[in-house]
């Protein structure tokens, strides 16, 4: 097993565990640790003024240290006290899987960390974004329940065929943009592909709409009032640049509502507007309002057609509670209602998320078809018939019947048995020597074997994924792109060693090193590195080494003139030191 489990992770289904990878804590370099420390010191200094109060409280509750990249094992020991857990993954994972993890109270953490060159913002999910952004806020019980409920509902959202293509394009861009040395033309090409896809997505799917809600709340949400908002979204909590930018008048603040579901976003750009929720409880209200628009709750022909168009595995639930899971191929409609549905390939039948005995994929490897609705000329639906009614209409063991449904679906054959639900309602009728037709078209022939006819007047729910997770082998994820690890040059290794020496000096592990010698090495061999010089400046100031501090400051001021884009980062470093920030 590539991760240390606990009682929360033990509940994860097998198909989610395929995304988990080992954190490999020893792979974090001293430069990575310095990046974490700088961002966290800067964020906590600023966010203590503008973030929701749960942020600082949550850092303590979830075991997030300012000085060290969090170790997943340590986080899990603390997170399980509030009923959550964390796992490491490789960058972006499919949206439905991401949300399903949330439904199991599991925080997904991309374990890589951004390069020093991308210290303010990275399009790739990283441990600063996930660990320092998402984890602290889940210590708030109301928000944690929103996150869990969002995962539960979001994982049932139906995708379009283009959603996965866009996900893979975004994942690819995030990987190459964060990778060292990627040619600009390759980045431009990947960016163009995303733009082209976004312009040709067609009608947004349920998954696209709920991802918008996720973006404007979990990732980029503000809380309070439009005039005095506070930050709670992880994308803002983990970005030095955007957390300050978002509080200016240049970013429009809008009261949060279901309209956020129809507001798209661009992951590669700062956000031009943000939504403000009055409190965390209101997030759940809007989520339930959105869920009421989903096929999960509306069912019907539109839900069935969405599932067919998605080409993904999904489930149709009938009014008797019978659930049909598989890849839906076609539907026959009559007067705006579905009167026949058909799957192709492996199909399983379930009731209350538990597979019906004898009705798994071994029984239905080539698909499943069934009429839906009432019999022609009979007001009473089959599911509402008492045993006496069923007998009167010859729906009885051993009877040869011809059942004609509204919509010109005819089922002819000999009834051999029926299956009932816990309420005693008949949910499945099995026939032999059966022929099923729609007008002149034959839908099922006697030589195909037994015909299992679902019973249900209406489709009450349609959702992504199988009803019973055990019915199918879902361990099928194939990653086309993986995070690119750059090969370290000798020069890079030497720089990492210098960072390590300074860290060990600060922590009292090795106070014999010469900080001045480290500084001379920086000037001679790494003149463009600014963060280590800031750390040396901090040590000089804290040790009242005034002349060394002046020398370091002069070096950094000169670097600001050579590379103006580093100016604000260096100034922020000075600010943290001069405040003598104690966290």
For this entry, give a set of tags.
6-stranded antiparallel β-sheet; single chain; Phenylalanine Hydroxylase; alpha+beta; 19% strand; 583 residues; elongated; 5-stranded antiparallel β-sheet
Molecular shape: elongated
Q: Helix/strand-derived class? A: alpha+beta
Overall average pLDDT = 90
**Uncertain regions spanning at least 5 consecutive residues:** none
What is the strand content? 15-25%
Main β-sheet, in a few words? 6 strands, antiparallel
Instruction: Give the distance, in angstroms, between the N- and C-terminal Cα atoms.
Output: 36 Å
CATH fold annotation of the domain at 9-160 and 201-209 = Phenylalanine Hydroxylase
Computed Rg: 29 Å
Helicity level, as a percent range? 40-55%
Task: Write the CATH architecture name of the domain at 9-160 and 201-209.
Answer: Orthogonal Bundle
User: Briefly, what CATH class of the domain at 9-160 and 201-209?
Assistant: Mainly Alpha
CATH superfamily of the domain at 9-160 and 201-209: Aromatic amino acid hydroxylase
Tally the beta strands. Answer: 17
Total count of helical runs of at least 4 residues? 21
Characterization of the model:
By secondary structure, this protein is an alpha+beta fold. Among the domains are: 9-160 and 201-209, Aromatic amino acid hydroxylase (Phenylalanine Hydroxylase); 313-464, no CATH class; 490-578. 40% of the residues lie in helices and 19% in strands. It contains 21 helices and 17 strands. The strands form four sheets. Strands 7, 8, 9, 10, 11 and 17 form a six-stranded antiparallel beta sheet that branches. Strands 12, 13, 14, 15 and 16 form a five-stranded antiparallel beta sheet that branches. Strands 4-3-6-5 form a four-stranded mixed beta sheet. The longest helix is centred in the N-terminal third of the chain and has 21 residues, at 30-50. The chain is elongated, with a radius of gyration of 29 Å. The chain starts with 13 loop residues before the first helix and ends in a 5-residue tail after the last helix.
